[in-house]
Protein backbone atom coordinates (compact mmCIF):
# COMPACT_ATOMS: atom_id res chain seq x y z
CA UNK A 1 0.00 0.00 0.00
CA UNK A 2 1.40 3.43 -0.87
CA UNK A 3 2.06 5.76 2.05
CA UNK A 4 -0.76 8.21 2.81
CA UNK A 5 -0.59 11.63 1.15
CA UNK A 6 0.95 14.44 3.13
CA UNK A 7 -0.39 18.00 3.22
CA UNK A 8 2.12 20.76 2.70
CA UNK A 9 1.12 24.40 2.87
CA UNK A 10 2.83 27.82 2.67
CA UNK A 11 1.67 31.39 3.12
CA UNK A 12 0.41 33.26 0.04
CA UNK A 13 2.98 35.13 -2.04
CA UNK A 14 0.58 37.99 -2.65
CA UNK A 15 0.27 41.00 -0.32
CA UNK A 16 -2.21 40.67 2.55
CA UNK A 17 -3.15 42.50 5.69
CA UNK A 18 -1.23 42.13 8.93
CA UNK A 19 -4.05 40.20 10.64
CA UNK A 20 -4.36 37.79 7.73
CA UNK A 21 -0.59 37.22 7.78
CA UNK A 22 -0.66 36.40 11.49
CA UNK A 23 -3.59 34.03 11.01
CA UNK A 24 -1.91 32.31 8.06
CA UNK A 25 1.35 31.97 9.96
CA UNK A 26 -0.38 30.35 12.92
CA UNK A 27 -2.28 27.97 10.68
CA UNK A 28 0.86 27.08 8.73
CA UNK A 29 2.78 26.42 11.93
CA UNK A 30 0.05 24.11 13.21
CA UNK A 31 -0.14 22.18 9.95
CA UNK A 32 3.64 22.03 9.76
CA UNK A 33 3.76 20.39 13.18
CA UNK A 34 1.31 17.77 11.96
CA UNK A 35 3.42 17.33 8.81
CA UNK A 36 6.60 16.82 10.81
CA UNK A 37 4.95 14.32 13.12
CA UNK A 38 3.53 12.39 10.15
CA UNK A 39 6.82 12.48 8.24
CA UNK A 40 8.78 11.16 11.20
CA UNK A 41 6.15 8.49 11.82
CA UNK A 42 6.42 7.26 8.24
CA UNK A 43 10.21 7.34 8.41
CA UNK A 44 10.16 5.31 11.60
CA UNK A 45 7.81 2.78 10.05
CA UNK A 46 9.94 2.47 6.93
CA UNK A 47 13.02 1.97 9.09
CA UNK A 48 11.16 -0.84 10.95
CA UNK A 49 11.63 0.84 14.28
CA UNK A 50 8.90 0.87 16.90
CA UNK A 51 7.19 4.24 17.34
CA UNK A 52 7.79 5.93 20.64
CA UNK A 53 7.34 9.23 22.38
CA UNK A 54 11.03 10.01 21.88
CA UNK A 55 10.37 10.40 18.16
CA UNK A 56 7.60 12.91 18.66
CA UNK A 57 9.71 15.29 20.73
CA UNK A 58 12.44 16.01 18.16
CA UNK A 59 9.78 16.85 15.60
CA UNK A 60 9.55 20.46 16.76
CA UNK A 61 13.31 20.83 16.39
CA UNK A 62 13.06 19.94 12.68
CA UNK A 63 10.19 22.34 12.01
CA UNK A 64 12.19 25.34 10.69
CA UNK A 65 14.18 23.20 8.23
CA UNK A 66 11.06 21.52 6.85
CA UNK A 67 9.29 24.85 6.42
CA UNK A 68 12.29 26.15 4.57
CA UNK A 69 12.06 23.33 2.04
CA UNK A 70 8.32 23.58 1.49
CA UNK A 71 7.81 27.27 0.88
CA UNK A 72 7.13 26.83 -2.84
CA UNK A 73 4.05 24.63 -2.46
CA UNK A 74 0.52 25.74 -1.58
CA UNK A 75 -2.32 23.45 -0.60
CA UNK A 76 -0.81 20.43 -2.35
CA UNK A 77 -1.08 16.75 -1.42
CA UNK A 78 2.30 15.01 -1.53
CA UNK A 79 3.20 11.34 -1.50
CA UNK A 80 6.32 9.90 0.15
CA UNK A 81 8.56 8.21 -2.44
CA UNK A 82 11.50 7.04 -0.35
CA UNK A 83 13.84 7.96 2.50
CA UNK A 84 17.60 8.45 2.37
CA UNK A 85 20.33 8.53 5.02
CA UNK A 86 23.93 9.79 4.82
CA UNK A 87 26.11 9.58 7.92
CA UNK A 88 23.08 9.70 10.21
CA UNK A 89 21.38 12.60 8.38
CA UNK A 90 18.05 11.81 6.73
CA UNK A 91 15.95 13.12 3.86
CA UNK A 92 12.45 12.23 2.66
CA UNK A 93 11.70 12.45 -1.07
CA UNK A 94 8.13 13.40 -1.91
CA UNK A 95 6.16 14.26 -5.05
CA UNK A 96 2.70 15.56 -5.85
CA UNK A 97 0.39 13.12 -7.68
CA UNK A 98 -1.11 14.31 -10.95
CA UNK A 99 -4.86 14.60 -10.34
CA UNK A 100 -5.56 14.67 -14.08
CA UNK A 101 -4.19 11.14 -14.49
CA UNK A 102 -5.93 7.92 -13.45
CA UNK A 103 -2.58 6.28 -12.64
CA UNK A 104 -1.44 6.36 -9.00
CA UNK A 105 2.22 6.51 -10.10
CA UNK A 106 1.91 9.64 -12.24
CA UNK A 107 3.17 12.84 -10.67
CA UNK A 108 3.21 16.49 -11.60
CA UNK A 109 6.37 17.49 -13.40
CA UNK A 110 8.76 19.44 -11.22
CA UNK A 111 7.05 18.50 -7.94
CA UNK A 112 9.80 16.05 -6.88
CA UNK A 113 11.31 17.45 -3.70
CA UNK A 114 13.66 16.45 -0.83
CA UNK A 115 12.59 17.17 2.77
CA UNK A 116 15.38 17.40 5.28
CA UNK A 117 14.69 15.66 8.61
CA UNK A 118 17.52 17.26 10.54
CA UNK A 119 18.33 20.66 11.94
CA UNK A 120 20.89 22.80 10.12
CA UNK A 121 24.45 21.91 11.07
CA UNK A 122 26.03 24.54 13.34
CA UNK A 123 28.79 26.53 11.58
CA UNK A 124 31.39 25.38 14.11
CA UNK A 125 30.52 21.71 13.54
CA UNK A 126 30.77 22.23 9.79
CA UNK A 127 34.16 23.87 10.17
CA UNK A 128 35.44 21.07 12.42
CA UNK A 129 34.18 18.45 9.97
CA UNK A 130 36.01 20.26 7.16
CA UNK A 131 39.24 20.37 9.17
CA UNK A 132 38.97 16.69 10.16
CA UNK A 133 38.71 15.72 6.49
CA UNK A 134 42.24 17.08 6.03
CA UNK A 135 44.08 16.14 9.22
CA UNK A 136 42.76 12.70 10.25
CA UNK A 137 42.20 9.49 8.25
CA UNK A 138 38.71 8.51 7.14
CA UNK A 139 36.89 6.59 9.86
CA UNK A 140 39.01 8.12 12.65
CA UNK A 141 39.42 7.01 15.43
CA UNK A 142 38.23 3.50 14.55
CA UNK A 143 40.48 3.29 11.48
CA UNK A 144 43.76 3.64 13.43
CA UNK A 145 45.32 2.27 16.62
CA UNK A 146 45.41 4.43 19.80
CA UNK A 147 49.12 5.28 19.46
CA UNK A 148 48.36 7.26 16.29
CA UNK A 149 47.26 10.36 18.25
CA UNK A 150 50.41 10.84 20.39
CA UNK A 151 52.62 10.06 17.38
CA UNK A 152 50.96 12.72 15.24
CA UNK A 153 50.96 15.21 18.13
CA UNK A 154 54.73 14.98 18.57
CA UNK A 155 55.23 14.89 14.81
CA UNK A 156 53.27 18.15 14.46
CA UNK A 157 55.41 19.78 17.18
CA UNK A 158 58.58 18.59 15.46
CA UNK A 159 57.52 20.14 12.16
CA UNK A 160 56.48 23.35 13.95
CA UNK A 161 59.96 23.86 15.36
CA UNK A 162 61.55 22.72 12.10
CA UNK A 163 59.54 25.25 10.10
CA UNK A 164 60.51 28.05 12.45
CA UNK A 165 64.16 27.06 12.25
CA UNK A 166 64.00 27.02 8.43
CA UNK A 167 63.52 30.80 8.25
CA UNK A 168 66.82 31.44 10.06
CA UNK A 169 68.79 28.77 8.22
CA UNK A 170 67.62 30.11 4.84
CA UNK A 171 68.67 33.63 5.81
CA UNK A 172 72.06 32.32 6.95
CA UNK A 173 72.61 30.48 3.67
CA UNK A 174 71.87 33.66 1.71
CA UNK A 175 74.40 35.54 3.85
CA UNK A 176 77.02 32.88 3.19
CA UNK A 177 76.75 33.32 -0.59
CA UNK A 178 77.44 37.04 -0.44
CA UNK A 179 74.20 38.84 0.39
CA UNK A 180 75.07 41.68 2.72
CA UNK A 181 73.92 41.33 6.31
CA UNK A 182 73.76 45.11 6.67
CA UNK A 183 70.87 45.55 4.27
CA UNK A 184 67.27 44.38 4.28
CA UNK A 185 67.94 42.18 1.24
CA UNK A 186 68.67 38.90 3.00
CA UNK A 187 65.55 39.12 5.14
CA UNK A 188 63.33 40.01 2.18
CA UNK A 189 64.78 37.26 -0.01
CA UNK A 190 64.45 34.74 2.82
CA UNK A 191 60.83 35.69 3.41
CA UNK A 192 60.06 35.36 -0.31
CA UNK A 193 61.70 31.95 -0.32
CA UNK A 194 59.76 30.85 2.76
CA UNK A 195 56.50 32.08 1.21
CA UNK A 196 57.25 29.99 -1.86
CA UNK A 197 57.86 26.90 0.28
CA UNK A 198 54.80 27.70 2.42
CA UNK A 199 52.55 27.79 -0.65
CA UNK A 200 53.88 24.38 -1.60
CA UNK A 201 53.05 23.00 1.82
CA UNK A 202 49.49 24.35 1.58
CA UNK A 203 49.06 22.60 -1.76
CA UNK A 204 50.40 19.38 -0.26
CA UNK A 205 47.92 19.63 2.60
CA UNK A 206 44.91 20.27 0.34
CA UNK A 207 45.69 17.32 -1.91
CA UNK A 208 45.96 15.01 1.11
CA UNK A 209 42.13 15.05 1.22
CA UNK A 210 42.10 12.41 -1.52
CA UNK A 211 42.24 9.97 1.40
CA UNK A 212 41.50 6.38 0.47
CA UNK A 213 42.18 7.00 -3.20
CA UNK A 214 45.87 6.72 -2.34
CA UNK A 215 45.17 3.07 -1.44
CA UNK A 216 42.79 2.10 -4.26
CA UNK A 217 43.51 4.39 -7.24
CA UNK A 218 47.23 4.70 -6.60
CA UNK A 219 48.25 4.25 -10.25
CA UNK A 220 46.03 7.08 -11.39
CA UNK A 221 47.21 9.35 -8.58
CA UNK A 222 50.87 8.48 -9.12
CA UNK A 223 50.72 9.32 -12.83
CA UNK A 224 48.72 12.49 -12.14
CA UNK A 225 51.37 13.54 -9.62
CA UNK A 226 54.15 13.05 -12.15
CA UNK A 227 52.29 15.20 -14.66
CA UNK A 228 51.96 17.90 -12.01
CA UNK A 229 55.70 17.63 -11.34
CA UNK A 230 56.42 18.46 -14.98
CA UNK A 231 53.89 21.27 -14.92
CA UNK A 232 55.67 22.74 -11.91
CA UNK A 233 59.02 22.49 -13.67
CA UNK A 234 57.57 24.31 -16.68
CA UNK A 235 56.24 27.12 -14.48
CA UNK A 236 59.68 27.47 -12.85
CA UNK A 237 61.28 27.91 -16.28
CA UNK A 238 58.71 30.61 -17.07
CA UNK A 239 60.19 32.79 -14.31
CA UNK A 240 63.14 33.48 -16.61
CA UNK A 241 60.80 35.19 -19.11
CA UNK A 242 58.94 37.25 -16.48
CA UNK A 243 61.32 37.76 -13.52
CA UNK A 244 59.05 40.41 -11.97
CA UNK A 245 56.49 37.64 -11.40
CA UNK A 246 58.98 35.39 -9.66
CA UNK A 247 57.13 35.02 -6.36
CA UNK A 248 53.63 34.09 -7.69
CA UNK A 249 55.09 31.77 -10.34
CA UNK A 250 57.47 30.16 -7.87
CA UNK A 251 54.59 29.65 -5.44
CA UNK A 252 52.43 28.04 -8.14
CA UNK A 253 55.30 25.80 -9.20
CA UNK A 254 55.97 24.76 -5.63
CA UNK A 255 52.29 23.92 -5.08
CA UNK A 256 52.34 21.60 -8.11
CA UNK A 257 55.62 19.96 -7.12
CA UNK A 258 54.56 19.45 -3.50
CA UNK A 259 51.31 17.85 -4.60
CA UNK A 260 53.41 15.53 -6.75
CA UNK A 261 55.55 14.78 -3.69
CA UNK A 262 52.42 13.82 -1.70
CA UNK A 263 51.31 11.34 -4.36
CA UNK A 264 54.79 9.85 -4.64
CA UNK A 265 55.15 9.42 -0.88
CA UNK A 266 51.60 8.14 -0.31
CA UNK A 267 51.67 5.56 -3.11
CA UNK A 268 55.24 4.38 -2.57
CA UNK A 269 54.51 1.82 0.16
CA UNK A 270 51.49 0.13 -1.56
CA UNK A 271 53.53 -0.20 -4.77
CA UNK A 272 56.56 -1.71 -3.05
CA UNK A 273 54.22 -3.95 -1.06
CA UNK A 274 52.95 -5.40 -4.34
CA UNK A 275 56.52 -6.46 -5.21
CA UNK A 276 57.49 -7.97 -1.83
CA UNK A 277 56.80 -11.69 -1.48
CA UNK A 278 57.51 -12.02 2.22
CA UNK A 279 58.30 -9.81 5.18
CA UNK A 280 60.91 -7.90 3.17
CA UNK A 281 58.99 -4.74 2.30
CA UNK A 282 61.56 -2.60 4.15
CA UNK A 283 64.40 -4.07 2.10
CA UNK A 284 62.48 -3.71 -1.16
CA UNK A 285 61.67 -0.07 -0.34
CA UNK A 286 65.27 0.79 0.60
CA UNK A 287 66.70 -0.76 -2.58
CA UNK A 288 64.05 0.88 -4.73
CA UNK A 289 64.84 4.30 -3.31
CA UNK A 290 68.55 3.65 -3.81
CA UNK A 291 68.01 2.87 -7.49
CA UNK A 292 66.01 6.09 -7.84
CA UNK A 293 68.76 8.16 -6.18
CA UNK A 294 71.48 6.65 -8.40
CA UNK A 295 69.45 7.40 -11.54
CA UNK A 296 68.78 10.93 -10.25
CA UNK A 297 72.52 11.57 -9.74
CA UNK A 298 73.34 10.26 -13.22
CA UNK A 299 70.67 12.51 -14.74
CA UNK A 300 72.04 15.50 -12.82
CA UNK A 301 75.54 14.81 -14.11
CA UNK A 302 74.31 14.52 -17.69
CA UNK A 303 72.39 17.78 -17.43
CA UNK A 304 75.51 19.57 -16.20
CA UNK A 305 77.47 18.35 -19.23
CA UNK A 306 74.68 19.37 -21.61
CA UNK A 307 74.24 22.80 -20.03
CA UNK A 308 77.89 23.69 -20.76
CA UNK A 309 77.07 23.69 -24.48
CA UNK A 310 74.28 26.27 -23.99
CA UNK A 311 71.49 24.27 -25.71
CA UNK A 312 68.03 25.67 -26.40
CA UNK A 313 66.24 25.76 -23.06
CA UNK A 314 62.79 25.07 -24.52
CA UNK A 315 63.98 22.20 -26.74
CA UNK A 316 65.89 20.56 -23.90
CA UNK A 317 62.94 20.89 -21.53
CA UNK A 318 60.48 19.41 -24.06
CA UNK A 319 62.72 16.41 -24.79
CA UNK A 320 63.43 15.69 -21.14
CA UNK A 321 59.75 16.14 -20.19
CA UNK A 322 58.64 13.69 -22.88
CA UNK A 323 61.12 11.14 -21.57
CA UNK A 324 59.91 11.73 -18.01
CA UNK A 325 56.20 11.36 -18.83
CA UNK A 326 56.69 8.24 -20.99
CA UNK A 327 58.81 6.63 -18.27
CA UNK A 328 56.21 7.51 -15.63
CA UNK A 329 53.39 5.98 -17.70
CA UNK A 330 55.31 2.74 -18.26
CA UNK A 331 56.29 2.70 -14.58
CA UNK A 332 52.70 2.66 -13.29
CA UNK A 333 51.55 0.29 -16.04
CA UNK A 334 54.17 -2.24 -14.95
CA UNK A 335 52.76 -2.47 -11.42
CA UNK A 336 50.58 -5.57 -10.93
CA UNK A 337 48.05 -5.17 -8.12
CA UNK A 338 45.76 -7.93 -6.86
CA UNK A 339 42.87 -5.75 -5.76
CA UNK A 340 39.90 -4.83 -7.94
CA UNK A 341 39.42 -1.07 -7.76
CA UNK A 342 36.80 0.56 -9.98
CA UNK A 343 38.99 0.71 -13.07
CA UNK A 344 40.18 -2.92 -12.86
CA UNK A 345 36.71 -4.09 -11.82
CA UNK A 346 35.29 -2.50 -14.96
CA UNK A 347 37.93 -4.23 -17.10
CA UNK A 348 37.26 -7.60 -15.46
CA UNK A 349 33.45 -7.46 -15.77
CA UNK A 350 33.58 -6.17 -19.34
CA UNK A 351 35.89 -9.00 -20.39
CA UNK A 352 33.70 -11.53 -18.57
CA UNK A 353 30.53 -10.35 -20.32
CA UNK A 354 32.18 -10.44 -23.76
CA UNK A 355 34.31 -13.58 -23.51
CA UNK A 356 33.03 -15.51 -20.49
CA UNK A 357 36.42 -15.37 -18.79
CA UNK A 358 38.01 -13.08 -16.22
CA UNK A 359 41.36 -11.58 -17.26
CA UNK A 360 44.53 -12.55 -15.43
CA UNK A 361 46.24 -10.19 -13.00
CA UNK A 362 48.75 -9.08 -15.63
CA UNK A 363 46.10 -8.62 -18.32
CA UNK A 364 43.71 -6.74 -16.06
CA UNK A 365 46.39 -4.37 -14.79
CA UNK A 366 47.68 -3.78 -18.31
CA UNK A 367 44.21 -2.75 -19.55
CA UNK A 368 43.51 -0.49 -16.58
CA UNK A 369 42.94 3.15 -17.50
CA UNK A 370 45.47 5.29 -15.59
CA UNK A 371 44.22 8.57 -17.09
CA UNK A 372 41.21 8.69 -14.73
CA UNK A 373 42.50 11.57 -12.62
CA UNK A 374 41.07 12.31 -9.14
CA UNK A 375 39.75 15.75 -10.11
CA UNK A 376 37.71 14.24 -12.98
CA UNK A 377 34.04 13.49 -12.24
CA UNK A 378 32.69 9.95 -11.85
CA UNK A 379 32.82 7.67 -14.86
CA UNK A 380 29.83 5.97 -16.49
CA UNK A 381 29.08 4.01 -13.28
CA UNK A 382 28.40 5.75 -9.93
CA UNK A 383 28.24 3.71 -6.71
CA UNK A 384 26.32 4.94 -3.66
CA UNK A 385 25.03 8.27 -5.07
CA UNK A 386 22.36 10.57 -3.69
CA UNK A 387 18.82 9.59 -4.69
CA UNK A 388 18.27 12.96 -6.38
CA UNK A 389 21.29 12.36 -8.64
CA UNK A 390 20.07 8.97 -9.81
CA UNK A 391 16.41 9.87 -10.35
CA UNK A 392 15.08 13.08 -11.83
CA UNK A 393 11.43 11.98 -11.55
CA UNK A 394 9.77 9.55 -9.09
CA UNK A 395 7.95 7.60 -11.81
CA UNK A 396 11.15 5.86 -12.90
CA UNK A 397 12.01 4.76 -9.37
CA UNK A 398 8.52 3.40 -8.70
CA UNK A 399 8.59 1.52 -12.01
CA UNK A 400 11.91 -0.29 -11.45
CA UNK A 401 11.90 -0.66 -7.65
CA UNK A 402 9.81 -3.91 -7.72
CA UNK A 403 12.58 -5.60 -9.74
CA UNK A 404 14.94 -5.11 -6.80
CA UNK A 405 12.53 -6.03 -4.02
CA UNK A 406 14.64 -9.03 -3.00
CA UNK A 407 17.95 -7.19 -3.40
CA UNK A 408 19.65 -4.74 -1.08
CA UNK A 409 20.34 -2.28 -3.85
CA UNK A 410 18.69 -0.54 -6.82
CA UNK A 411 20.36 0.02 -10.19
CA UNK A 412 19.15 2.51 -12.79
CA UNK A 413 20.24 4.60 -15.77
CA UNK A 414 19.83 8.37 -15.82
CA UNK A 415 19.58 9.53 -19.46
CA UNK A 416 20.06 13.19 -18.56
CA UNK A 417 23.55 12.40 -17.25
CA UNK A 418 24.37 9.35 -19.34
CA UNK A 419 25.39 7.30 -16.29
CA UNK A 420 24.38 4.12 -14.50
CA UNK A 421 23.71 4.52 -10.78
CA UNK A 422 23.82 1.82 -8.09
CA UNK A 423 21.97 2.89 -4.92
CA UNK A 424 22.39 0.86 -1.72
CA UNK A 425 19.72 0.04 0.82
CA UNK A 426 20.50 0.43 4.49
CA UNK A 427 20.81 -3.35 4.98
CA UNK A 428 23.47 -3.67 2.24
CA UNK A 429 26.59 -5.61 3.23
CA UNK A 430 29.94 -5.95 1.49
CA UNK A 431 28.79 -8.65 -0.95
CA UNK A 432 25.62 -6.68 -1.75
CA UNK A 433 27.75 -3.69 -2.76
CA UNK A 434 29.96 -5.89 -4.92
CA UNK A 435 26.87 -7.42 -6.54
CA UNK A 436 25.42 -3.95 -7.12
CA UNK A 437 28.67 -2.85 -8.79
CA UNK A 438 28.58 -5.96 -11.00
CA UNK A 439 24.92 -5.30 -11.83
CA UNK A 440 25.70 -1.69 -12.73
CA UNK A 441 28.39 -2.83 -15.17
CA UNK A 442 25.96 -5.36 -16.67
CA UNK A 443 23.27 -2.70 -17.11
CA UNK A 444 25.83 -0.38 -18.70
CA UNK A 445 26.74 -3.19 -21.10
CA UNK A 446 23.08 -3.66 -22.07
CA UNK A 447 22.51 0.08 -22.46
CA UNK A 448 25.55 0.42 -24.71
CA UNK A 449 24.46 -2.60 -26.75
CA UNK A 450 20.99 -1.09 -27.14
CA UNK A 451 22.50 2.21 -28.22
CA UNK A 452 24.88 0.55 -30.71
CA UNK A 453 22.06 -1.46 -32.28
CA UNK A 454 20.01 1.70 -32.83
CA UNK A 455 22.96 3.61 -34.33
CA UNK A 456 24.60 0.78 -36.24
CA UNK A 457 24.72 2.63 -39.53
CA UNK A 458 25.55 6.06 -38.14
CA UNK A 459 29.00 7.47 -37.58
CA UNK A 460 28.76 8.74 -34.03
CA UNK A 461 31.31 10.32 -31.75
CA UNK A 462 32.57 8.28 -28.81
CA UNK A 463 30.76 10.49 -26.31
CA UNK A 464 27.43 10.34 -28.12
CA UNK A 465 26.34 7.55 -25.76
CA UNK A 466 26.14 10.19 -23.04
CA UNK A 467 23.22 11.70 -24.94
CA UNK A 468 21.37 8.38 -25.30
CA UNK A 469 17.80 8.67 -24.00
CA UNK A 470 16.00 5.30 -24.14
CA UNK A 471 12.26 5.06 -23.79
CA UNK A 472 10.76 3.90 -20.51
CA UNK A 473 10.02 0.49 -22.07
CA UNK A 474 13.57 0.11 -23.38
CA UNK A 475 15.05 1.01 -19.99
CA UNK A 476 12.72 -1.40 -18.22
CA UNK A 477 13.60 -4.16 -20.69
CA UNK A 478 17.33 -3.60 -20.15
CA UNK A 479 16.88 -3.72 -16.38
CA UNK A 480 14.87 -6.96 -16.60
CA UNK A 481 17.53 -8.58 -18.79
CA UNK A 482 20.31 -7.38 -16.52
CA UNK A 483 18.54 -8.83 -13.46
CA UNK A 484 18.32 -12.22 -15.18
CA UNK A 485 21.99 -12.18 -16.14
CA UNK A 486 23.16 -11.08 -12.68
CA UNK A 487 21.17 -13.84 -10.98
CA UNK A 488 23.00 -16.49 -13.03
CA UNK A 489 26.40 -14.94 -13.73
CA UNK A 490 27.46 -13.10 -10.55
CA UNK A 491 28.45 -16.27 -8.66
CA UNK A 492 30.40 -17.53 -11.67
CA UNK A 493 32.21 -14.20 -12.01
CA UNK A 494 33.25 -14.26 -8.34
CA UNK A 495 34.64 -17.78 -8.52
CA UNK A 496 36.56 -17.10 -11.75
CA UNK A 497 37.97 -13.87 -10.35
CA UNK A 498 39.18 -15.76 -7.28
CA UNK A 499 40.80 -18.39 -9.51
CA UNK A 500 42.79 -15.67 -11.27
CA UNK A 501 44.04 -14.32 -7.93
CA UNK A 502 41.90 -11.18 -7.73
CA UNK A 503 40.93 -9.84 -4.29
CA UNK A 504 37.39 -8.45 -4.19
CA UNK A 505 36.28 -6.03 -1.48
CA UNK A 506 33.67 -3.28 -1.45
CA UNK A 507 36.23 -0.97 0.18
CA UNK A 508 38.41 -1.13 -2.94
CA UNK A 509 35.50 0.26 -4.99
CA UNK A 510 35.28 3.28 -2.66
CA UNK A 511 31.45 3.61 -2.88
CA UNK A 512 29.46 6.59 -1.66
CA UNK A 513 27.85 6.61 1.79
CA UNK A 514 24.23 7.33 0.85
CA UNK A 515 21.71 4.62 1.82
CA UNK A 516 18.01 4.13 1.09
CA UNK A 517 15.91 3.64 4.24
CA UNK A 518 12.99 1.27 4.03
Looking at this protein, list some descriptive labels.
alpha+beta, 3 domains, eight-stranded mixed β-sheet, 8 strands, Protein root UVB sensitive 6, Growth Hormone, Chain: A, 8% strand, UVB_sens_C, RUS_fam, 17 helices
Summarize the structure.
With 518 residues, this protein is α+β, with helices and mostly antiparallel strands.
Biggest sheet overview: 8 strands, mixed
Distance between the termini: 14 Å
CATH architecture name of the largest domain: Up-down Bundle
> CATH topology of the largest domain, what is it called?
Growth Hormone, Chain: A
Mean pLDDT across the residues is 75
Shape: globular
Order of helices and strands: EHHHEEEHHHHHHHHHHEHHEEHHE
Find the structural class using helix and strand composition. alpha+beta
Whole-number total of structural domains: 3
Question: Low-confidence segments, ≥5 residues, pLDDT <50?
Answer: 1-37, 40-75, 456-462
Counted by DSSP, the helix tally is 17
Q: How many individual β-strands?
A: 8
Query: β content, as a range?
Result: 5-15%
Residue share in helices? 55-70%
Task: Provide the CATH top-level class of the largest domain.
Answer: Mainly Alpha
Amino acid sequence: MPPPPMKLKQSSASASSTNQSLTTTATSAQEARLLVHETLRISATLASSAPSQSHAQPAKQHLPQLLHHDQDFVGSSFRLICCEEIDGRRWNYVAEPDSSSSSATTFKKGSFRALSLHSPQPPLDGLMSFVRSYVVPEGFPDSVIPSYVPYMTWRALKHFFGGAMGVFTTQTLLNSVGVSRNTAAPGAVAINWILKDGAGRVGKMLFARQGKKFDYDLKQLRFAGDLLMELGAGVELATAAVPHLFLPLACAANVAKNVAAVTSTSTRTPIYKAFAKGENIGDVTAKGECVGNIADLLGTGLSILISKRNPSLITTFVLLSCGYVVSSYQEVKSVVLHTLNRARFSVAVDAFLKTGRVPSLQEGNLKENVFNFPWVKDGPVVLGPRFKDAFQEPNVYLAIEPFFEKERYVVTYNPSKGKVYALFKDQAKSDDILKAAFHAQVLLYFMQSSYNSQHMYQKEKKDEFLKFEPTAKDLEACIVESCKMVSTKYGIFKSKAKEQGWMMSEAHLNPGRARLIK
